[in-house]
Amino acid sequence: MSDPIIRVDSASFSVGSATLVDSVSLEVAAGSVVAICGPNGAGKSTLLRMLAGDLVADEGEVLIDGAPVGSTAPSDLSRMRSVFQQSSRPDAPFTVRAVVAMGRYPYRGDAGVSGQDDARAIHDAMERTDVAQFAGRSFATLSGGERTRVLMAQVIAQAAPVALLDEPTTALDVAHQEAVLEQISDLASAGTTVIAVLHDLNAAAFYADVVVLMAEGRVVATGTPAEVLNEDLLVDIYRQPITVIEHPTRQCPLVVVA
Fold first, then answer.
1. CA separation for the pair 98, 149 (Å, rounded)
2. pLDDT digit string, tens, across residues 213-254
3. What is the CATH number of the domain that holds 106?
4. Cβ(38)–Cβ(84) below 8 Å
5. Domain range holding 20?
6. In what order do the strands lie in the sheet with 81-84?
7. CB of 6 within 8 A of CB of 64?
8. Does residue 50 sit within a domain?
9. 105 in any annotated domain
10. Could you give the CA distance from residue 152 to residue 186 in angstroms, rounded to a whole number?
11. Which helix (H) or strand (E) holds 78?
């Protein structure tokens, strides 16, 4: 593998006596799609927030393109990575276009980026996520699934080399879930490194290049979907009868809850 764009070296994070992420090490190649999976409370979202620089590791280090995120200025971080979080306030008093336009904020004052560049990026992102028809509506009036698509448009408009996505398919219907997953694939094809927390193991199986399986704050397996999504390991982690078979139409594993 070429030099990784993201490297996590023995990183841990605790709150009080609770260790949420425990000595995690990880390397992520540029342009890949990485799915972080695992049961509730495994530390997935905490690890993603550490990658984003929103949480600073108590021990170890997290680097993006060689820069320690814990000591990188927010203005520089915003050019290095975009972040999708379901916790964004649904009552934000902004129009949909204004929310998507926030993705262009890191480029304000950049002589090499024109207003036309910003407008084009915003328009294209809204078209790709099927939210252009909501441009003038208040973000607060949208359904959960519609807000998810708007926040995904913001990530696309930001055009950072790394996209960090926390459960980007939550609250989406089947068609829009597949559309978002296709957008993730397209971002990676264009060179963006995508790391997504996913609960849907079958989405991870088909769309991810690498699956990182977590439990109790630790990484228990990292590899291709075929390597990681095996019955014995999943049954042990999820404490649930699970069968893994070959997908009948896609060249990937199919995870079936027994």
1. 14
2. 999 999 999 999 999 999 999 999 999 999 999 999 999 999
3. 3.40.50.300
4. no
5. 6-257
6. 81-84, 162-166, 193-197, 33-37, 210-215, 218-223
7. yes
8. yes
9. yes
10. 13
11. helix 74-80
